[in-house]
Design goal:
Elements lengths: L4 H14 L9 H18 L3 H10 L15 H15 L7 H11 L10 H12 L3 H14 L23 H7 L11 H25 L4
Length: 215
């Protein structure tokens, strides 16, 4: 019996509930937002939902800590786990290679280029969740979880030093978040990324105004 999308969602939620996220920024709410982003982008880009939706639901089904030396392997491990689950759930075998590619290629850390429109949609959907109000909240939440400072006192906005997000949450804006809009793979994803990036820049400008010359 072929698995239907409604059944797929139920099984994904159940499976992800057992395999809890490794950090506060990659919880089930993150997954749901990525799925919602992916649905919208897939419709605009005419991508196959048979590939996009399972990949979006399961893209973080294996999580590795941000500061782990194995971080770059997380998406490959997630792709393997997703394929195992989908076979167990009788999902159509013909879609699995494209689904696993989309999961493997979504990760910023893995550095793999997506080669299908479905993989591009999933990558964009995930990266959009690192931008805007949600992206800001996730960045600060994860920084707090990892016991990192909000900013480096002697140079909060990396004006005279190289950013190092192992030191402070604001540094992560410069190591990753502000660069994401230039990595977007779809026109719709790029337009939304530009809008959300402007929000992050506004936050940084306000933070700079508020902290002034404090050290």
């Amino acid at each position: 019996m072929i698995l239907r999308f409604a059944e797929l969602e139920i099984k994904c939620v159940q499976a992800l509930g057992v395999h809890a996220a490794g950090d506060a920024a990659h919880d089930l709410m993150h997954i749901r937002r990525v799925v919602a982003n992916a649905r919208r982008l897939a419709e605009v880009e005419n991508a196959k939902t048979e590939v996009v939706l399972p990949a979006a639901w399961l893209h973080d089904c294996v999580t590795v800590a941000k500061d782990s030396p194995q971080r770059a392997q997380a998406s490959r491990l997630a792709a393997q786990q997703a394929a195992d689950w989908l076979r167990e759930w009788n999902y159509e075998e013909r879609w699995l290679p494209e689904i696993t590619h989309a999961i493997e290629a979504h990760s910023f850390s893995a550095g793999l280029a997506p080669t299908t429109i479905e993989a591009k949609v999933v990558q964009d959907a995930d990266r959009l969740d690192a931008l805007g109000a949600v992206g800001l909240a996730r960045c600060l939440m994860l920084g707090g979880q990892m016991q990192r400072s909000l900013y480096v006192g002697e140079d909060p906005f990396c004006e005279t030093r190289s950013p190092d997000d192992s030191r402070a949450a604001v540094d992560h804006f410069y190591t990753k978040l502000l660069t994401l809009q230039d990595t977007m793979q779809t026109a719709a994803g790029r337009a939304e990324a530009v809008r959300r990036t402007e929000f992050l820049k506004t936050f940084l400008a306000e933070l700079k105004r508020e902290i002034g010359g404090t050290r």
